[in-house]
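Hi support team,

I'm filing this because I wasn't sure whether my run with iron/sulfur cluster finished correctly. The job status page said complete, but I'd like someone to confirm that the output block is well-formed before I use it downstream. Pasting the exact inputs I used:
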Amino acid sequence: MTTAPTTDGVLVDRYGRVARDLRVSLTDKCNLRCTYCMPAEGLPWLSGPQLLTDDEIIRLIRVAVHRLGVTEVRFTGGEPLIRPGLVGIVSAVAALRPRPRISLTTNGIGLARLAPTLRAAGLDRVNVSLDTVDRTRFAELTRRDRLADVLAGLAGAAAAGLTPVKVNAVLMRGVNDDEAPALLRFALAHGYELRFIEQMPLDAQHGWDRGRMVTADQILADLRAEFDLSTDLAERGASPAETWLVDGGPARVGVIASVTRPFCGDCDRTRLTADGQVRACLFATEESDLRGALRAGADDAELARRWRTAMWGKRAGHGIDDPTFLQPARPMSAIGG
Ligand code: SAM
Ligand code: SF4
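And here is everything the job wrote out:
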């Protein structure tokens, strides 16, 4: 890979995209086993020494904010709420200047208890993943009977002011593909902003099937049978979600059509895995090892240089529709969704 030009201050790639949105995976472990994400028995988890420590994570985020122009930090996993040091990490990131916006993608279990503390530490927003509002289905889909905890987590997030609370839903054929209108009714009733995500080939079991995935067009058609969806004139920017006003607004619904309407040309993301690897894309097959450099004594300037080089090599698109497409070796839960 060629070295990035020495423009300090931004993470730019050879196609001119600038990455300002950093996704940090805090753990590859999870307390659910969503069938589209993980096998029932879990995965071979990263070991303690492989994981970045809290201080290492904070240092790398500081490098990203101070030297690389990152303005958004989103914590994810695995399940980020099960990382013991989460609150301390959030408050250290909130103390950075310029202060990045800080958000969290979570399955919501434990959020009811943690939301006020996280809010006080500086967390701005949450996205909670919820694919069904039916208890039996939830238990089948996630292999755990925890719907009540997730609903309590959503309510706790809203009460703590982690707003707008967004709900992420993945639909799967024959499992919950009839539930788009019910999920939207639920979100509207509680004031949450719902976004559907097309299922992507990132499952550990390699069970994804392009022909069986529920497409954005199908989701929108199902919603339109019950709701009036009109164009949302708000600026989309680098957001992956296309949004529509529901019944004239102000409520919105979004669809992230990563597969059928890829938005790679506007992508502004860079990713850090729980073991300290930079990934330019969810679907990247290459990673750049910052943990090794950091533990070998690299200074901040050297870490920033390596990060810029990793991003310079970002491919133009994910290539899911390309016959040569190769699913990345790591599943979504280990990359950080
Ligand atoms: N455990 C947290 C959660 O579920 O929100 C954070 C990690 S999870 C990997 C992040 C998001 O990725 C979730 O919204 C989840 O539904 C989504 N996801 C996982 N596997 C996916 C797949 N194969 N295709 C599309 N989205 C997926
Ligand atoms: Fe866990 Fe999130 Fe994967 Fe579900 S989608 S198994 S909650 S990491």
